[in-house]
Every structure is written in C-alpha cells, then in structure tokens.
Amino acid sequence: MVELENESTMDHITFRSDTVLSDVHLHIPNKRHLMVRLNAVGQPVFLSQFKILNGKDRSRDESHQHGKSHDTIESTELYARSDDEENGNLGYSNMQENSNNSPITTRGLEAVLDEDGDLEVSRRPQCDFVGVEDPPRHKAHPIILTKGYCDFIENEDGDSNRQDIIKIEHTMATTLEDVGKQVWRGAFLLADYILWCQDLFRGCTVLELGAGTGLTSIIMATVAKTVYCTDVGEDLLDMCDRNVTLNVHLLAPAGGEVKVRTLDWLKNELSEDPEIPFSWSEEEVADLHDHTTVILCADVFYDDDLTDALFKTLYRITHSLTNPCTIYLSIEKRLNFTLRHMDITCDAYNHFQDCLDSMKSLVDGKMRFTAETIETNFPQFFIYERIKHLELWKVVAESLT
C-alpha cells in the first residue's frame, strides 16, 4: 500500500472552469471512495461498486423512495478510511448502515452551494448520520492501493464477488474530452433495459460504441455471447479492460466474453496493427461482420462533430454486417443556457434528432433505418435518478441489397 506523500492535497477535488461532473458521482456521498491509482495522465482513479437490485430490492427501494427524489439515494460506494487506520490499523468498513441499522442520508443539493448559489463540491463528506450522536468518521481521506488491491478488496469485503455487485473504476470531475472515464445515467438506463429484456440479447454478438468505463458492455455480457466493447484512447481502454477483469464473477455463469478494442469514429477502418494496444485481429473483424446483431451507444451525444462521426460510423458498420442489426441509443436531454440564443436550449439533443431524422429518411438503395422511442417505465436495476430527460431509442438497420 502506498499513501500520498501529502494527504492534504487530496482532501478536496479541485474543479476548473472546464470541468464536468456526472450526476451519478455528484449525488453520491463520497465518504467511501477508494482511490486505487493514478492513471497514465495523472488523474485519480476511484473504485466504486454498484448493486444490481433484485425484485425484492426494487420493491423496497420504490417504497422507501415514494414521494422522494433519487437525488438523496446512496449508491454502494466502497470504503472510507477509518480512524483505526489513522493509528496504523487497516480498519475499512462498508458503511451502508450504521450499527443501529439506521439509514445514512445525504443533505440536499443546497448543502453544496455557496452563498451566491454557485456549486461548491468538497472532498469531505456532506452527510447526516440519522440516529447516531457521533459520526463514526471524522474525515475521509482517499488512499492509493497500487499493488494487489483486487486481492485486498476481496479479502476485506466478503460480498465483493456477489452476483448482484458490479465494480467499476472511474475518474471524477474531468474535462469534456475525458467524460468517458466517468459513469453516466445513460449507461445505467441502457443496462436496466438489458436486464429487463434479457431474452432479446441472449447469445448475441454485440458491439458497443463509446463504451467509456465499460459498465453497459459488462452487463450485456451477462446474457450475450460476445461483446466488443470499444472506445478510443489507450488510457481509457486500459481502465475499461481493468473493469472487465474486476467483474469476471458476473460473466462466468453465462459464459459471456467482453473484448475491449479500439474503434475511432473518425477513421474508416478497424485497426489490425498488432503494435497498437487493443487492436483487432483478423478473426475478430470477421466475427464482428458475420455475427453482430446489436449495437449499443450509451449517452455519447454531447458534441456535434462527434455525433456526426458516430452516425457515419453506424451507417458504415451496419452496411458491412451480414445480418440485420438493432441499435439501442440512450441519451440525456441536457438543458444549457447559450449566449447565441440567449435562452435555455438543448443544442446537443437537437443535433442528435437532426442526425436521426436524416438516417431515417436516407434513400440510397442500400440501407433502410427505422427508429422509435422505448418507454422508460421498465424497472430500475440500479440506484440512480431516472429523470424525464433520459430517453432510449431503438433503431433497426436492414440491408436492401
């Protein structure tokens, strides 16, 4: 175990003007963050675990949350550094409940706003311990576990390999170009749908574009045969590959396989250069073209140029597939005030709709695309706020030749 030389530097996460933070992380108390490493570009990487709810868990959650916002829900983040550790003892604890079995709740969003109404996010946990006179944690310092941390977690947490736990490495508060390293609500929405409609995907070969941390691909591999989990950037793909390794306990029962590969939307060919990390083999490219029937895209529509590139990639790939293909797209309609319009708009969402309309109206004699929305009233298997601006689209691509 290697600790930071100067712990005080990690007491707070620093936000710059160009920093974005996923709501999944913003609304989760960070008293149990386990910082496992620094990635290749020096960003802190945290390990969180999320519970996959069964029917009983969902009923309990719905009952508990009746009339409440999901903003106050806790995810099952891993560990906090305890006071015992301050004295040299390894005293980690998964603090889902206190000793009196009283729930731990978080303050509302107002707790992280300054007097001017600006967001002020602190590394120190903002939480209330219901029914506890003295909080069992006075502060939460992240630590770095650089060697053998998976074994350490499994030894300390007897539930780490349960079939209802998915473990994800991620960063927090990144610049826009690194948002794939965070966990987003769109990934949970698509994962919910996969778990609800497992028979649709059982035994399939699946391609995910812009997979990020790989959460959706991992969930898909619990029912599918092969999932090609793709994104761009060696550092991101390395994180994604580590997440696949962390969750082999979920994949083993069904025999599903996740293959992390590079796929750049700005390039027309799949890289088969063995010198390039996460490149494709000739056999994998053939398997992709011959057997893929499902394509996933989870919350990747936030930049107009990238959206254009993605739709061109979708057309190019579906045209090369042997079988008809169904594409599932999750998107969050994000409201922003723009100086250009002097109003609150959804520019990224509007551009997505324009691209989708162009795809549906395409007449080239080669491909036909049909699209429809999927009602998002199916059950939640993960704890997050399923806001009304989250949408799920189904696009069917069929060859006309």
What does this structure look like?
With 401 residues, the protein is of the alpha/beta class. It has two domains: 159 residues, no CATH class; 223 residues, Vaccinia Virus protein VP39 (Rossmann fold), CATH 3.40.50. Helices cover 26% and strands 21% of the residues. The chain contains twelve helices and 16 strands. It has a seven-stranded mixed beta sheet, sandwiched between helices. A three-stranded antiparallel beta sheet has the order 2-3-6. The chain has a two-stranded antiparallel sheet with strand order 1-7. Strand 8, helix 7 and strand 9 form a beta-alpha-beta unit. Helix 11 packs parallel to helix 12. It is globular.
What are the salient characteristics of this protein?
401 residues; Rossmann fold; globular; alpha/beta; seven-stranded mixed beta sheet; three-stranded antiparallel beta sheet; disordered N terminus; 2 domains; single chain; 16 strands
The helix count comes to: 12
How are helices and strands ordered from N to C?
EHEEHHEEHEEHHEHEHHEHEHEEEHEE
The biggest beta sheet reads: 7 strands, mixed
For the residues shown, what is the average pLDDT? Answer: 77
Low-confidence stretches: 1-15, 66-113, 121-157
CATH architecture of the largest domain: 3-Layer(aba) Sandwich
CATH superfamily of the largest domain: Vaccinia Virus protein VP39
- The N- to C-terminal Cα distance equals 59 Å
Strand segment count: 16
Q: Name the structural class.
A: alpha/beta
Name the helicity range. Answer: 25-40%
Measured by DSSP, the beta-strand proportion falls in: 15-25%
Question: What is the highest CATH level, the class of the largest domain?
Answer: Alpha Beta
Radius of gyration: 22 Å
Named CATH topology of the largest domain: Rossmann fold
- Silhouette: globular
